[in-house]
Write a structure and sequence with these properties.
11 helices, NADH:flavin oxidoreductase/NADH oxidase, two-stranded antiparallel ribbon, 13 strands, eight-stranded parallel β-barrel, TIM Barrel, YqjM-like, about 350 residues
Length: about 350
């Protein structure tokens, strides 16, 4: 029987009822990192709408790991308690839920997007962002270089957040290692100019990410999947830039160390030429990673139509389809897609009269 977006998929001990995934989407509505009723409705409606897996917006592992003061977090027990009812509601709808953990590194401490996302200095409640090297990362400020001791703290924060994610009841964890944030800052030669064991060679530049994955897996239940979002290309002609071959190589290494799913995204440091952005433009990258490494892959990037999403799965280009903006427009896209494709999706009892 041919695969479709409504075919189930088992990853370790987690079985998804379908392969439609809600991609992480920042809401910028959480003072003190605490989720609330908005997130219950935002994530819960997409669970009611039929998605197989919901990935939360990226949640910081420490206060200084945020991009803005309004990002969600998982660095204290109050945040665990805030997430628990949302996790429970999503699961009651038959969906699975993963939390995306992140650290913004040198791209941290910005004002709210409505205020222009400019740098927020310590005098106004911000902090001095730190990355692998003193390199400007889009906020007009050259971030300071992290010390080895500070890098150990970051790894410990990811471990602690992992333990809290388990406590909150999440089905899975996604590690955000893309889009110009701290792990991408380390593995890309555009931003990592270190000369110690975390800079220079490919092996050194991926070291922080690999060590963090190893540490997280040690405290995760064996049956709990670990996902990773990577920028598998930098979209830059600079000879120091990260290339697809590097992304494939890193994906294979992460698979060995316990990463179960790689979502192939790109960019984070340069403005992408709009001419190169079109429906499914990043899908070939997911296909190459899947073909060359055998890791379960997620495809993302301008996937908006039912036939388009289904073709990605049916053709074997990827194992999961992640959607963002279309699911902002229509939380019930999976139910609509099942009708368009003449495939079966479970409709919640109160909504069946509409289908």
């Amino acid at each position: 029987m041919a695969l479709s977006i409504f075919s189930p998929l088992t990853i370790r001990g987690m079985t998804l009822k379908n392969r439609l995934v809600v991609s992480p989407m920042q809401q910028y509505l959480t003072p003190d990192g605490l989720v609330g009723t908005w997130h219950m409705v935002h994530l819960g409606s997409r669970a009611v709408g039929g998605a197989g897996l919901i990935i939360t917006e990226c949640s910081a592992v420490s206060p200084e790991g945020r991009n803005t003061l309004f990002d969600t977090g998982l660095w204290n027990d109050e945040q665990v308690a805030a997430w628990q009812p949302i996790v429970q509601f999503v699961q009651e709808q038959g969906a699975k839920i993963a939390i995306q953990l992140w650290h913004a590194g040198g791209k941290g401490s910005h004002r709210h997007p409505q205020e222009g996302m400019t740098y927020l200095p310590p005098t106004e409640g911000g902090w001095l962002p730190k990355g692998p090297s003193p390199t400007a990362l889009g906020n007009g400020l050259a971030a300071e270089a992290l010390t080895l001791a500070e890098m150990e703290t970051i790894k410990a924060n990811f471990v602690a957040a992992t333990q809290r994610a388990v406590q909150a009841g999440f089905d899975s964890i996604e590690l955000h290692a893309a889009h110009g944030y701290v792990f991408h800052q380390f593995y890309s030669g555009l931003t990592n100019h270190r000369t110690d064991q975390y800079g220079g060679s490919f092996e050194n530049r991926i070291r922080l990410l690999v060590e963090t994955v190893q540490a997280m897996r040690q405290v995760m239940p064996e049956a709990m999947p670990l996902l990773a979002r990577l920028s598998v290309v930098d979209y830059s002609d600079d000879p120091r830039a990260w290339q697809l071959a590097d992304g494939v190589r890193l994906s294979a290494i992460l698979k060995v160390h316990g990463v179960d799913v790689v979502t192939a995204s790109g960019g984070g440091f340069v403005t992408v030429d709009p001419a190169t952005v079109f429906p499914s433009y990043q899908v070939p990258m997911a296909e190459k990673i899947k073909t060359e490494t055998g890791v379960i892959t997620g495809a993302v990037g301008m996937i908006n139509e039912a036939q388009q999403a289904n073709a990605i799965i049916a053709s074997g280009q990827a194992d999961l389809v992640l959607m963002a903006r279309e699911l902002l427009r229509d939380p019930y896209f999976p139910l609509r897609a099942s009708r368009e494709l003449h495939l079966t999706a479970e409709v919640p009892q109160p909504y069946k009269r509409a289908f």
